[in-house]
Amino acid sequence: MAPPAASQRYPSPSQPSGKSEVSDLKTQLRQLAGSRAPGVDDSKRDLYKKVISYMTIGIDVSSVFGEMVMCSATSDIVLKKMCYLYVGNYAKGNPDLSLLTINFLQRDCKDEDPMIRGLALRSLCSLRVPNLVEYLVGPLGSGLKDNNSYVRTIAVTGVLKLYHISPSTCIDADFPATLKSLMLHDSDAQVVANCLSALQEIWSLEASHSEEACREKESLLSKPVIYYFLNRIKEFNEWAQCLILELAVKYVPSDSNDIFDIMNLLEDRLQHANGAVVLATVKVFLQLTLSMTDVHQQVYERIKSPLLTLVSSGSPEQSYAILSHLHLLVVRAPFIFAADYKHFYCQYNEPSYVKKLKLEMLTAVANESNTYEIVTELCEYAANVDIAIARESIRAVGKIALQQYDVNAIVDRLLQFLEMEKDYVTAETLVLVKDLLRKYPQWSHDCISVVGGISSKNIQEPKAKAALIWMLGEYAQDMSDAPYVLENLIENWEEEHSAEVRLHLLTAAMKCFFKRAPETQKALGTALAAGIADFHQDVHDRALFYYRVLQYDVHVAERVVSPPKQAVSVFADTQSSEIKDRVFDEFNSLSVIYQKPSYMFTDKEHRGPFEFSDEVGNISITPEASSDIVPAQQYEANDKDLLLGIDEKDENKGVSNNNGSAYTAPSLESSSNITSQMQELAISGPATSATTPQSFGFDDLFGLGLSTAPAPTPSPPLLKLNARAALDPGAFQQKWRQLPISLTQECSVNPQGIAALTVPQSLIKHMQSHSIHCIASGGQSPNFKFFFFAQKESEPSNYLTECIINTSSAKAQIKVKADEQSTCQAFTTVFETALSKFVSLTFDFVSLCY
């Protein structure tokens, strides 16, 4: 432990103010080293406590190393412990000093007191100095043969430490064979458990280059060894029992009798008070009976009661862990837990994370016999003071409705939620009503009569507003004011920030036009014009697609946009069956808690190439990352290889409409085709002048009024950046620490760019194309963190930026530090402009049309 800086030290009664007090300690220890006067051990204790306290607060007391060793010649076990603690702290950093400890530690390893022998052996093995491994072999060999079980336990762990320091020394001394003999014949359970743990680690590491180690590792899974451990399992502590049960999971039984014998041996482990032991036992039962369908189902029945007991008897954290495993089992066999649904009712004093998991389980176990009781309970939660739980309970009711056949009572309950006049309740209910109508169109009359009374002005959440708009378009013929509500929403297009809502507005306007054309004509024209001018790529593409398909043939457009209603029988599952099976295979691990396989949160490829903490000073770029970093020049060349480069798209945007859009107006067909479409629509559009191209008659039909005026020349950027800027990571780190924060700001990120952030390199490449270079990046969804730098083109002025992007809120937190404060705002504008243009580089066929 490094001592604190001098400026951070403050004098105190227990802390020396200078070297003189450490020198006084050294003198006093030397005086007591050879003394045998009465009470000398008490004096040594006081001095030892001072030395340890100084060492703990970071003061260097290595100068008293020799005196501490000389004073260790005592039978007082407390003094021994403090001396070993001191020696272990300084020996590793001072190998030369550690030589002084070898003699007295070896001497203590032969002490009459087994506690001192064990402590000395543990301290000797903890020195971890490669040059001293030769001094460990003898004491370890004696420790493995010691009459006291505590010393043997320490010696077994010491063998593993020796292997990590010098594997060849450990193997040459034949310690693995000695450990195997102890494991199979020692009477002490802790010694046996330590031997098993050490041998598993040693043979796993040796198996990569030793066939003998492979055979020895496989021998641990032999029937005699497995039965030896299982017959003695009651003697072991909880940790050792879990270790043995993990070994038993890997055992391959020879026949069904073998399976039943093991299950009978472990039957009483299901009643253990420790949750880890119960879960490990459950895993053994489940894995052994996978190939026996009937027995596997009986195992579910048998393990149900112990798990439910653990849920109600432990802490909230243990309850959550057990519930997570129960949830996995409930999803696989809901009918077995259907009668126990009341165990999953929420208690008022439970944490929200436990309540949320219980709601998911209530959804999973619901069937025809218990739906009424479960839905009644869930409706009570809808009025919960915890808004998050209230939302989850409403979603749970909707999920149950979507998986049941008799939904009469459930639909009535959902419609009653709309009368609660709570914004979040109304929002969640609208989303669920939309899904219900997709699966049960026969309920449209009852639902629409209630939904029609809801004002769109009271709905603020994007998903809820999108659901309401969907119903306005889908059931426009049943809602008298549907065209006028849509028209009002379209007039406020610029105030709607959600791309999802704007997309639904386009589709709803189209559907309403096909059902009530005269009332929707103007609104559709306004929506198409606004959509084509929209900055969001998806909204623009959909508006352009609708425009062109209408121009091609109105009847075709109706068949595409508003086909006959078909009930949705099954909604897509959020998790594939393969992933669920992988999670089940990793039962009794973090995979069950995270609800994803271990490779998704442990492999390096899922952690990203950069590793850094919150401080930029801890940035470390891995070797893989250095090869991924592409110079700015190379990006310019790579842009030409893209299917549709960003620069090429910008160059092709030649004209704009009257709304200031940079997109070109679509080219139209001949006037004869337009005239036929107008006749089919039975709408008389305004006459066009002789000088106006005939193709614009279709535009006038919807009041688009597209202009052919050329787009204004964009103003030059306020700040020009150096495309070939370079900055060493060390220089970046130093500047970041020295410079003050010039500006902190929050901005929005393009939703399509958020979708592309699954690969952070896409943003790095995009920003580098704007002469803003990434020095490090990291994080995982929903939070990604980037450090960027840029330089002025004319002079070596640096701009350092920390950018934290939250994919859930589509917001970016920007922190800028600059050498030149006067141009910081100009750089921030350039940075935000570049970030706002970040979109996915995947295009559908509509995008390729222009």
TrEMBL record:
InterPro entries: AP_beta, AP_complex_bsu_1_2_4, ARM-like, ARM-type_fold, B-adaptin_app_sub_C, Clathrin/coatomer_adapt-like_N, TBP_dom_sf
UniProtKB keywords: Membrane, Protein transport, Transport
SMART domains: B2-adapt-app_C
Pfam families: Adaptin_N, B2-adapt-app_C
Residues in Beta-adaptin appendage C-terminal subdomain domain copies: 719-836
SUPFAM superfamilies (alphabetical): ARM repeat
Gene Ontology CC terms: clathrin adaptor complex; endomembrane system
Compartments reported by the entry: Endomembrane system
Chain spans, region Disordered: 1-25, 650-671
Any one GO molecular-function label of the UniProt entry: clathrin binding
Biased composition (Polar residues): 9-25, 654-671
Keyword Electron transport tagged: no
GO biological process terms on file: intracellular protein transport; vesicle-mediated transport
General function of this protein: Subunit of clathrin-associated adaptor protein complex that plays a role in protein sorting in the late-Golgi/trans-Golgi network (TGN) and/or endosomes. The AP complexes mediate both the recruitment of clathrin to membranes and the recognition of sorting signals within the cytosolic tails of transmembrane cargo molecules.
Family recorded in the similarity comment: Belongs to the adaptor complexes large subunit family.
Assembly information from the UniProt record: Adaptor protein complexes are heterotetramers composed of two large adaptins (beta-type subunit and alpha-type or delta-type or epsilon-type or gamma-type subunit), a medium adaptin (mu-type subunit) and a small adaptin (sigma-type subunit).
Protein known as: Beta-adaptin-like protein
Species this protein is from: Arabidopsis thaliana (Mouse-ear cress)
